[in-house]
UniProtKB/TrEMBL annotation:
SUPFAM superfamilies: DNA breaking-rejoining enzymes, lambda integrase-like, N-terminal domain. GO terms for molecular function: DNA binding. Keywords: DNA recombination, DNA-binding. InterPro entries: DNA_brk_join_enz, Integrase-like_cat_sf, Integrase_recombinase_N. GO terms for biological process: DNA integration; DNA recombination. This is Tyr recombinase domain-containing protein. It comes from Strigamia maritima. It comes from the Eukaryota.
Amino acid sequence: MLARYEDDKISAEPAKLVEKSWKSSTAKSYDKFWGNWCKWTNEESLNSFRPSPTNLANFLSFLFKSGLSYSSINCHRSAISQTLSLDGSPKLGFHILVRRTLKDMIISKPPQNRISTIWNVGPVFIYLESIDLSSTSSWLLVNVKVSCLLVLCLADRSSDLRLLSSDITFYDNSCHVLLTGTRKLGSQNAFIINKFSNLTFAQWHICIFTSILRLAADLQTRNNFFLGLSHNPVTTVIIARWIKTALARAGGNTAIFSAHSKRTASTSHAYKKGLDLAHIIKAADWSTARIFHCHYNRQIEPFSQDFSSTVLSGYKQP
């Protein structure tokens, strides 16, 4: 997309800084969407860098008729709008004509949720409770337990966990974990993990503060909180695999539910338990309640305590 910068007479150095301001995954996606836009404008004999709101609305309509999902079409809109606004002009993607076009798509073909229910966090916590960090020597079990407790109790993304460092400050009732980089939404704020209260003796095994405290000595010998078998920093894919492992061993249907579903499970559970929606939005780092209601709030699958206990009683740690 450097051609866009050159068209606006932006020198190479600022152009590179602008590109670096986007995460690599975002830039890669934007390149694909921008390529589709340029191909369409060339076929229509239009200027890719100086379109009108009508041009963008027609392009989005073309994508809709081609069978693309609303999510994909909206990503195209965002990529084009963000790139074209680098010269300080108003974002084309927010023009009333473009917004009306997107709204018409939703009315004509409402997005369908792939699933209407979400897995219950109860069996997963029962499984995690069975992992005793003071006695297990399994590298996998330690990482599975701590990563799952973090994402379920803090409603964070797997990509955020990858950034956790070993720089931890402990207080009486909480600990602060610094990050090695920037989160998805640009924040570099430390993870603040509070100590649970009013837990039974057995339930202390699922207190994330207690779990991190038990790992404190080992964390002093490395820079990153999570490490792989080769002692290198782990990727988001590996953390997602740990979460999926816990879900599978707790009896969850991993053929339907991916690791990404953990935010849906934890926030839906908190909402069902009566937690104020404002606290849920803040914990999940969402901008509005609409995001939760439209994309994350799901009916929770029931589970049998007797069934879960029976499954766990026959489980042998590797």
